[in-house]
Amino acid sequence: MTISRGELLIDLEALRHNLDVLTAQVAPSQVMVVVKNDAYGHGLVDVTKAAVESGICWIGALDVPTSLSLREAGISSPTRIFAWLLDPAEDLEPAISASIDLGISTVEQLNTIAASSAATPARVHLKIDTGLHRNGATPEDWPELVARARALEDQGTLEIVAVWTHIAEADDHEDSLSIARFEEAVAVAHDLGVPSPLRHLAASAAGFARSDARFDLVRFGAFVYGLPPGDGPSAESMGLRQVMTLSAPVSVVETLPDGRRRASIDLGFADGLSTLAPGRIGVAVHGRRHPLIDPLEVDRAWFDLADDNEVAVGDLVTVWGDGSAGEPTLQEWGDATGTMSEELVVRLSPRIPRRVI
Ligand SMILES: *Cc1c(COP(=O)(O)O)cnc(C)c1O
């Protein structure tokens, strides 16, 4: 298959493999597949459908519009779709009617649910803040939140499905403190009449590494796509495979007046490539790495050919992939350009055609 410009290849076989690895790693806890930011740039609907076909019951969609678009795309109950970023001005009736699980941090949000005209009880996950200060009720506000939810549960307005939090996952000691605060909040909820909610706390890093962080459900984002954090263990060492490959054909091969030889691909910073890349990372052609060089243009990137005489216009250049064709992984790209691999994938322009295999 020849491609004319750049192409994003999404390998659903690799995605399914990662889901099997993550499911086995955390069993008997369950896996929630987080698909925010267009499934980390991999394609919301394709990724969600593949996850559901692989037996995943929980999808983390971030917000209500994304959740509803998944229901419209045919992701029906009993697949659970979780939305935790709620717009204060939002009418929650469509989400409740579509059986979307809602992450709830405040009594005001509970009141919004109570005021909605939905005919079915809302499914709510009550959020405690355990130190990250990114939403969540404080330990002081927690009893009131739980008590109000319990009262609404008795009225048939909602069902308390879960108690949850989000932790930093940057520091083991800090995470241990968050886990302890979480367990206290679960105990408080228990005493207020929530006997056995689902409990979820961890995202990729802590969920993979720490059995005491898994509880009933782990919210996996980055690792689903084979994207480990920078400077940490590689995807390979965890048995994960990078799902996305970015490639483009050679568009120009030329010799400069000083004798240096260079070649280009038609992907530039408008496509989402980082201007920090030249001099820091390379691309692979025929299994050989070549460093990117300045200038990174709006829609073109140059790489140095040195003594490589084999490269011709039309040859396939792999910008990043799982490393099997000699190319750098997204983890290497992230480390080289001082960012996370996740940022690189979510910054990609939607104008790059995506091919799902
Ligand atoms: C993004 C996100 C996740 C997934 O995080 P990863 O580190 O990519 O696994 C999980 N939970 C919440 C609340 C998130 O916002």
From TrEMBL:
Cofactor: pyridoxal 5'-phosphate
Residues the record lists as N6-(pyridoxal phosphate)lysine modifications: K36
Single Gene Ontology BP annotation: D-alanine biosynthetic process
Record-linked Gene3D superfamilies: Alanine racemase, Lyase, Ornithine Decarboxylase, Chain A, domain 1
Annotated GO MF terms: alanine racemase activity; pyridoxal phosphate binding
Keywords assigned: Isomerase, Pyridoxal phosphate
Gene Ontology CC: cytosol
Keyword DNA-binding: no
InterPro entries registered for this protein in UniProt: Ala_racemase, Ala_racemase/Decarboxylase_C, Ala_racemase_C, Ala_racemase_N, PLP-binding_barrel
Domain spans labelled Alanine racemase C-terminal: 243-357
NCBIfam families assigned: alr (TIGR00492)
Official protein name in the record: Alanine racemase
Taxon lineage: Bacteria, Bacillati, Actinomycetota, Actinomycetes, Micrococcales
